[in-house]
Write a structure and sequence with these properties.
Blueprint lengths: L8 E4 L5 H12 L3 E6 L3 H13 L3 E6 L5 H15 L4 E4 L13 H18 L7 E7 H4 L11 H16 L1 H6 L3 E7 L6 H9 L1 H8 L7 H13 L7 E5 L2 H6 L4
Parallel strand pairs: 1-2, 1-4, 2-3, 4-5, 5-6, 6-7
Length: 252
């Protein structure tokens, strides 16, 4: 069996559960050394690390709030010290649907923290490295198609985050670092879809009416592929699910 990610060190933010955890496990199985970032859920992160190690892979749990620059700096230093390098940064952590969250939190985590993390990681990355940003179709195509009102802060802030990261492409190119976006339809079983089902079940049903929603495993497989697949140009977008979106818009 070919291990496509062998020799790569990958840091995945928000990897204690859901898409981040599944991506970590899949990349670990493909031979990558995986740093599993978490904010509070250490036990879950430890379980992901244990799963990777049980399968013969190499993993490290690293706690850090991605909105805290000092914590991010310490995390990046710990990963570089353990693995010798950071070859790939997967920007998976996001937020904004939490009940009682500060009105500015979505922009803080989905835009400001993503840019700060990318800049800090880029300072430690060598030519040939890659940054992968995960988003949703509702955010990627924000402003071109209505989104559920409950998801509006997340869509707007993740689109702002993607735009800000794309603005970094010339700088990243000068360092030999690729930038890739992976955009997915609503992903079955994720916390975002679970929360939307509670607050606006019709919105989820409307998406499901266009076909089965991608699973966490399917989306994670696309992310894992984006870590290693050669690209023609930095800024390439990989789309997962949501054929109606892709039929309506020109790929971005």
């Amino acid at each position: 069996m070919e291990h496509r990610a062998s020799g790569k060190s990958v840091l995945i933010t928000g990897a204690s559960r859901g898409i981040g955890a599944e991506t970590a496990v899949q990349l670990g199985a493909e031979g990558a050394a995986v740093a599993v970032n978490f904010r509070e859920k250490k036990r879950r992160a430890d379980a992901v690390v244990h799963s990777i190690e049980e399968s013969g892979g190499r993993a490290l749990g690293v706690g850090a709030d991605v909105t805290d620059p000092e914590a991010v700096d310490a995390m990046l230093n710990a990963v570089a010290a353990e693995f010798g390098a950071i070859d790939v940064l997967v920007l998976n952590a996001s937020g904004g649907l939490e009940l009682g969250a500060d009105p500015g939190y979505a922009m803080s985590i989905n835009r400001d923290a993503q840019v700060a993390m990318a800049r800090a990681a880029a300072d430690r990355m060598k030519p040939g490295s890659r940054i992968v940003f995960l988003t949703s179709h509702q955010a990627h195509f924000y402003g071109r198609k209505p989104v559920p009102v409950e998801y509006e802060p997340i869509a707007a802030s993740k689109r702002a985050g993607e735009d800000a990261l794309r603005d970094m492409i010339p700088e990243l190119n000068s360092r030999g670092i690729d930038f890739v976006v992976v955009s997915g339809d609503m992903i079955e079983g994720t916390i975002v879809v679970t929360l939307l089902e509670r607050r606006n079940p019709d919105a989820v049903a409307a998406r499901a009416a266009h076909g089965a929603l991608p699973t966490v495993a399917e989306f994670a497989a696309a992310v894992a592929a984006a870590v290693v697949t050669p690209i023609e140009r930095s800024g390439h977008t990989v789309y997962v699910g949501g054929a109606d979106y892709l039929d309506e818009f020109v790929s971005g």
